[in-house]
Design brief:
Layout lengths: L9 H18 L3 H23 L3 H29 L5 H7 L6 E8 L5 E7 L2 E7 L2 H15 L8 E5 L12 H6 L7 H14 L18 H9 L1
Parallel strand pairs: 3-4
Antiparallel strand pairs: 1-2, 2-3
Length: about 230
Amino acid sequence: MAKPQEKVSFGQRLKQIGMVFKFTAKQDRWFAPLTAAAVLIPLALTVVAVLNWGWLWLPLGILLTMLAVLIVLNLRSNRAMMNAAEGQPGAAASIMENMRGDWRVTPAVSSTTQMDMVHLVIGRPGVILLAEGNPQRVRGLLGQEKRRLAKVIGTAPLYDYVIGVDEGELPIRKLRMTLMRLPRNLSGKDVNSLDKRLKALTARPQLPKGAIPKNMRPTRGQFRQTRGR
């Protein structure tokens, strides 16, 4: 049975917001000036409203100030996180796992020892492959995965993207918006059915290409036993 979601106390929530503030201020030089503007402008308007129409406008002004600060925090923190994630291995899968909506993410269904990897995403648009790493190597991985998936996805649409900043690649900061704009080609039942078929296909773990580590190599006796079967 799934564990019930733990409730976050008010103190923990404030601590989380404080951590986001510190992280965003460190990563984004415009965050502090924009936050100051989000505080000063509504407060100035509140003072004018209170002087002209009475104290009833004070609670509304405070709420508007808090809302403006939260909007700035949300927008700038997302931008800061995208900037920090750019170039980090596995960042695309991490972003997809935290996206709202019904997205089924399998990180690194195919990879190499050079940290090139392809992530599998299943959602209402269809099947999506996200590749991170050296463009030449990951395009080869993408081709292999597309051929492998074509056997089981049927008529479901298949999209593939190479994450990067060069021409023909998808910047990681545009990943969410790009996928959210894809057409909804599948129903919820289609997504569930497709997810089951692809889980069966990807159940066997794949070793990255390259030399096999010594501690994973079979002994000569094990190799003879395998050949004799």
